[in-house]
Design the sequence.
């Protein structure tokens, strides 16, 4: 019995089909990691270009942001349909649909190009968006397209490719392989299928190594050394969890409610919506002294490291700016802006815990708010 199982195992690992599948996953994961790393560098450069324009005059966004968002929406509709939004809902839809034609409309190289290019356009004009959600869509698209060229006969391999590609995209974007694996289980698949175990882990590892080779081994928000006494920690966790969760849930609910109400008008007048939203973003940026533009990475990183400050209304203005950016329909994620909002909230709540390090409360605020937004606490 054991010898028979051994022979089956040896046949399985030495078969041409098995090695073909492995090569597709490995090469796809490397390409996902490389794309995510280049995307990260380009997004940082786009943020810097906008900050340079802002340094010339704080009033430039009053013209640049509405016109830039109108251009991005026009290109999304005319050239890159299907690239709108964060990309995670599209990836989940592609993962769950049994129809190959629908999956092809949700995941393609055209959408990959549009996702990268239009997210960069949004950052260039000051939209409050991130690249992490789009990286999931990009990773799933790249892996799926490579799998289609390989012509795998089984449906479950398409699902495995999408799941592994999305996880690899997130892992490369944050330089956190474990986060990619947990995200795939908790957010995208809702279950851990045995046959995707090895492929998922391998894809995430290859994508992570590739991203590290390009970007270096870095911490996304820097490093914080903060400790709390248990007597303070338990109360801080409860307060940050409840307030952060409520505010994060309110943000998600407001996006869904407002999107549904605006949907008919946005279908008829998408450029008008984009222009009005762009003007509102510029006005919020003026009120916040420029802190609500872009990903919010600098603000969050400064608060985590203890080297930055934000105004008391920053988390609420950032939340509003992210909602408005999402309503335009341009490609762009909410991960980084949500973490920035949570950091601002934690910084505000730190005043109620004078005995605790500010950085520790900032991190709890990020965790509480982000968990409320995405409703995936792990």
Sequence:
């Amino acid at each position: 019995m054991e010898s028979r199982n051994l022979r089956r195992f040896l046949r399985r690992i030495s078969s041409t089909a098995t090695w073909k599948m492995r090569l597709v996953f490995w090469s796809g994961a490397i390409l996902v990691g490389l794309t995510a790393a280049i995307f990260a560098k380009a997004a940082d450069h786009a943020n810097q270009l906008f900050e340079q324009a802002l340094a010339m005059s704080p009033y430039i966004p009053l013209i640049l942001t509405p016109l830039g968002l109108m251009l991005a929406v026009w290109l999304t509709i005319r050239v890159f349909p299907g690239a709108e939004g964060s990309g995670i809902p599209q990836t989940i839809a592609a993962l769950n649909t049994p129809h190959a034609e629908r999956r092809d409309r949700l995941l393609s190289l055209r959408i990959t190009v549009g996702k990268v290019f239009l997210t960069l356009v949004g950052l260039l004009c000051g939209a409050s968006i991130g690249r992490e959600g789009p990286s999931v869509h990009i990773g799933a698209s790249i892996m799926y397209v490579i799998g289609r060229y390989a012509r795998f006969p089984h449906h479950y391999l398409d699902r495995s490719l999408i799941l592994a590609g999305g996880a690899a995209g997130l892992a490369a974007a944050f330089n956190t392989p474990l986060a990619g694996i947990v995200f795939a289980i908790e957010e995208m698949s809702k279950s851990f299928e045995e046959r995707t175990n090895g492929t998922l882990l391998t894809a995430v590892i290859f994508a992570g190594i590739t991203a590290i080779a390009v970007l270096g081994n870095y911490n996304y928000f820097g490093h914080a050394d903060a400790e709390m006494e248990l007597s303070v920690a338990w109360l801080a966790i409860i307060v940050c969890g409840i307030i952060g969760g409520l505010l994060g849930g309110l943000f998600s609910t407001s996006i869904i409610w407002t999107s549904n109400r605006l949907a008919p008008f946005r279908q008829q007048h998408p450029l008008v919506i984009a222009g009005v939203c762009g003007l509102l973003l510029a006005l919020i940026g003026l009120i916040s002294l420029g802190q609500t533009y872009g990903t919010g990475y600098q603000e969050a990183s400064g608060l985590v490291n203890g080297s930055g400050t934000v105004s008391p209304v920053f988390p609420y203005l950032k939340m509003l700016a992210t909602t408005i950016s999402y309503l335009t329909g341009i490609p762009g994620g909410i991960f980084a802006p949500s973490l920035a909002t949570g950091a601002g909230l934690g910084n505000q709540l730190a005043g109620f815990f004078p005995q605790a390090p500010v950085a520790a409360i900032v991190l709890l605020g990020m965790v509480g708010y982000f968990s409320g937004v995405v409703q995936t606490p792990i």
Summary: The chain has 16 helices and no strands. Residues 150 and 194 are 22 Å apart (CA to CA). The mean pLDDT is 83.
